[in-house]
Amino acid sequence: MIGGISNRVLLGGVALICASAMGFALYLQYVVGLSVCPLCLTQRVFIIGTGIVAFLGFVHGPAMLGQRVYGGIALLFSGIGCGFAARHVWLQHLPPEEVPACGPPLAYMLETLPFSETLTLLLTGDGNCAEVVWSLFGLSIPELTLGLFIALIVVLTTIIARAR
Questions:
Q1: Is 113 contained in some domain?
Q2: Can you give the pLDDT at residue 2?
Q3: What distances in angstroms separate CA 10 from CA 23, 84, 161, one per listed residue?
Q4: How far apart, in whole angstroms, are the C-alpha atoms of residue 89 and residue 144?
Q5: Is the pTM of this model over 0.90?
Q6: 81, 87, 92: which is closest to 140 by C-alpha?
Q7: Could you say which protein family the record assigns here (predicted)?
């Protein structure tokens, strides 16, 4: 324990932050009425994955090796999510003529396209992902999510480094 905060408490904090981020995402979707683009869905998967692993680490309360394992797996989820968030931010900053064409809604893709094509579209995004529909302090949702993933990476790296 360094600075008075144990790794277990940090893992609990990571889980709480991920749960809060998902609660806010669901609020924006169901209360505010924002539609969810493919890259947003992909980022949600990695926020949920990070949160679940961190929660399991918090509940389990393992010794040092276990803290590194939980921290490492959560770091992997956060790192991949950070990559998708960065791609999303990149898509939003493309000139209009370079934005990929908009794709069909997810429900339609799941019904008509092979799963591999649907998965590819979820992982690469489309023109819908380039639209900025909401912002906070001048930052779009993907920019805020990128900041969240970076913060999670810093905390999880700290957990791994301290678990010796």
A1: yes
A2: 47
A3: 20, 24, 13
A4: 10
A5: no
A6: 92
A7: Belongs to the DsbB family.
